[in-house]
Structures are given as structure tokens and as C-alpha cells.
Amino acid sequence: MNTPSRRRILSTALALGLVGCGRQQSEEQVVGTVPPTGSSVADGKQALERLLAGNARFVAAQEQDLDEGIARRIAVSKGQHPFATILGCVDSRVPIELVFDQGLGDLVVVRSAGGALDQSVIGSLEFGVAELHTPLLLVLGHQRCGALDATIKALDKPTAHPGKLGYLVDTLAPAVRQTSGKPGDRLTNAVHANVTHVLAELRRSPVITPLEQSGKLQLAGAYYELDTGKVTVES
């Protein structure tokens, strides 16, 4: 059996080392050509405008060619500069990045059923605005929300709920009760009321409130239509 010589082994190792160095250098060069995400957003107003422009592209099926390749992955692995923090529902029909036509490193996304708030959700939103310094915090409700629909049915016909579903109903119930007896579609009213309720609760945060009062953070609510894909700002 032929045994490779020591010289051949050393030569092969040296060649592989040079290839590795070249690959590392080329990756560093690529990273240098990729601008940090969110760099073009100066404040909450511009951040909201950027989201709505992306949503307009989504509605028209003219999404931008997002850079989600190797270069972008390397760039965001070095640090992140998202331009907005968004609270949305877990509904599979409302993928936040797709709805706003944004890519890797652009958004801080927190999702819970119906946009329900608890300590973990609020803490995650506080992290987005205070630690990652996003100038916009958007609460996004959506058409035909299953979690709020289930809450309406649970309040109309009280029953025991397994696991933590009862906690979810209790959390979403205040918004549903606010719409009792009002004209219009009950579920749609509940979704809008919940966005308003969540914003009011977030403004009680000792982290979020000072940022908004200082002008460093803008809070906004919005509504997503499943039928059209359009996002409409409410407040």
C-alpha cells in the first residue's frame, strides 16, 4: 500500500490553509460591501414609512429582491441594526417580514396569539426598543383573528379551558368586553379595540414610556387585511 510522504502531507496542509485564508479574506471583503440594516432610518416616522412602502410592494406582488444570501448572513452575524419592533399575532397567514417585504436583520418581531401581552412579551418589546434602539414600536392586529374569535365565543359560553388557554382568554377579554353592544362586526371591532388596549398597556411600561416622551420612540397601531394584504395605520 502506498503511504503519502511527509512532504506531500505538509504541502496539502499548506494548500488547504491558504485556501482557508483566501476564503476568510473574501468573506471579510464581502461583508464590507453590505451596509448595516436599518441605517437609512432616522426616526419612527421614517421607519413607519419604510414599513408601509414595503407593504405596498407586498400588496402589488412586486416585492424587492431581498439580499438573504451568504453576504447578508455574514453581515448580520456581526451585529444587528433593526429599524422597527413589531408585535403581531401567531396566525400563520400573517408572516410579519413578508407582509412588510423586509429581510434579515431588519425587524424585531414578537408574536403571541391575538397580540396578547404578558411579562415575556412586554420584556421582549422593551428589549427591542431599549437595547436594539428601534425608533418604532408597531402593534399589528389582523382581520378574522382566531384568538379573539375564540375569546368572544368563550365569553359568550363560559367553559373550562385546558392548559394555558384560559389565561389567553382572560388576557384578551378586556378588549372584547369593550366592544359589547357596539354596531358593526363584533370580531373586527374586537381586533381594533385590542390594538388600542395593547398600546395603552405598553404606555404603562417604565421602559417604553420615557422613550416615547423623549421623542426617541414612536408607538403606532395598525390593521392587516387578510383578503387584500394591506396594512392600514390606525393610531
UniProtKB/TrEMBL annotation:
Keyword hit for Zinc: yes
Keyword annotations: Metal-binding, Zinc
InterPro entries: Carbonic_anhydrase, Carbonic_anhydrase_sf
Residues annotated to bind Zn(2+): 89, 91, 142, 145
Stored CDD domains: beta_CA_cladeC (cd03378)
GO molecular function: carbonate dehydratase activity; zinc ion binding
Cofactor binding, note field: Binds 1 zinc ion per subunit.
One Pfam family recorded for the sequence: Pro_CA
Keyword Zinc found: yes
Tree of life domain: Bacteria
Function according to Swiss-Prot or TrEMBL: Catalyzes the reversible hydration of carbon dioxide to form bicarbonate.
Stated family: Belongs to the beta-class carbonic anhydrase family.
PANTHER family in the cross-refs: CARBONIC ANHYDRASE, CARBONIC ANHYDRASE 2
Protein name per UniProt: Carbonic anhydrase
